[in-house]
Amino acid sequence: MPTRTIPLRDHAFRPDPSGVLWWAERRWLLVADLHLEKATALAQRSRRLLPPYDSTATLARLGAAIDRLDPAAVVALGDSFHDSEGADRLAADDLATLIRLARGRDWIWVLGNHDPDLPASLPGDRTEELQVDGLVCRHAARPSASGEISGHYHPKAAVSGRAGRVTGRCFVADEHRLVLPAFGAYTGGLDVLDPAIRGLLGPLFHVWLIGRAGLHRFPGARLSPIALRYIDSVA
């Protein structure tokens, strides 16, 4: 299997430098953890203010990937909104963008812990998990699962080499599971070596690190710990 694809249960998935996952066999685009309307949620619940443009920026990046790949279906793997009221706070222009992106294709919202229910005003279908071709798509990985695609953990990784140290969002996979990076503009990340992620993985896992020049595949043995295990910042 070429290193530019991730094998899972006799299927091949192509990680995209944008942070989406492409399943060419079905023409499916999978994306995780958009966390739309995170800025407005923070503004309501704390004194920490962020510019309220995260949804616009996230949908613009997602739209660019959709326009480029032209998927038959989009599968959003949970925490698409930062809370259950996030869709109601979505600006009219952002909602119009979302409706345009969903037009002419299937759109499936896998529900997450941040958005366990979504309003009927949003296009597409809702599900707790999606089973297809011997695989299961869900928000959060389960330790005993196999053939699983998920998000939730916002994986990041660091690698040190002659050119210095590179840290970034990443896809991570072993023979049983594949975890996508967070896609949202205001999402942080968790070190793949943190027990919450590392404990899910077998000894021969790999990461596909998103760098400025594209994707870089590394075995887990090459990774270095990130000083701050969880970094909640503008990514």
Describe this structure in words.
By secondary structure, this protein is of the alpha/beta class. The protein is 18% helix and 32% strand. The chain has helices at residues 38-45, 54-69, 86-89, 92-102, 195-198, and strands at residues 6-8, 11-15, 21-23, 28-31, 73-76, 106-110, 125-127, 130-132, 135-137, 148-150, 155-161, 164-173, 177-179, 189-191, 206-211, 214-219, 223-224, 230-231. Strands 8, 9, 10, 11, 12, 13, 14, 15, 16, 17 and 18 form an eleven-stranded mixed β-sheet that branches. A hairpin with a 5-residue loop joins strand 2 (11-15) and strand 3 (21-23). Helix 2 (54-69) packs parallel to helix 4 (92-102). The longest helix is centred in the N-terminal third of the chain and has 16 residues, at 54-69. It is globular, with a radius of gyration of 17 Å. The model has no long low-confidence stretch (mean pLDDT 91).
Q: What portion of the residues fall into strands of 2 or more residues?
A: 25-35%
**Main sheet record:** 11 strands, mixed
Number of strands: 18
**Bulk shape:** globular
The count of helical stretches stands at: 5
Poorly predicted regions:
none
Mean pLDDT reading: 91
Between the first and last Cα atoms, what is the distance in angstroms?
Answer: 31 Å
Alpha-carbon Rg, integer: 17 Å
Helical residue percent band: 10-25%
Class based on secondary structure composition and strand pairing: alpha/beta
Order of helices and strands: EEEEHHEHHEEEEEEEEEHEEEE
